[in-house]
């Protein structure tokens, strides 16, 4: 198993939770009334643009900030 620091594990679990929340929002979003219907869950009608917009903080962190910090750390060692 890969040993991860506590900070990385916490950010990983929070990111996963946020992506689940954004998927929930994307599946319960009603295009007709522009409101969230909590009792209705439709897997066949997922608004993927809503999923990616609500999940933007996660995408920016894991594909922008995290690699930038890793590259910066590697360059400082050399």
Polypeptide structure, described:
The protein is mainly α. The protein has one domain (6-77). Helix content is 67%, strand content 5%. It contains 3 helices and 2 strands. A two-stranded antiparallel sheet has the order 1-2. Helix 1 (6-28) packs antiparallel against helix 2. The two termini are 28 Å apart. The mean pLDDT is 84.
Question: SSE layout and pairings?
Answer:
Elements: H1 6-28, E1 29-30, E2 35-36, H2 48-54, H3 56-77
Helix pairs in contact: 1-2
Basic shape: elongated
Please give the largest β-sheet: 2 strands, antiparallel
- Strand-residue proportion: 5-15%
Domain count = 1
- The arrangement of helices and strands along the chain is HEEHH
- Number of E strands: 2
Question: Structural class, judged by helices and strands?
Answer: mainly alpha
Query: Could you name the ranges where pLDDT drops below 50 across 5 or more consecutive residues?
Result: none
| Residue share in helix | 55-70%
Straight-line N-to-C gap: 28 Å
Question: What key phrases describe this protein's structure?
Answer:
single chain; 78 residues; mainly alpha; two-stranded antiparallel sheet; 3 helices; transmembrane helix
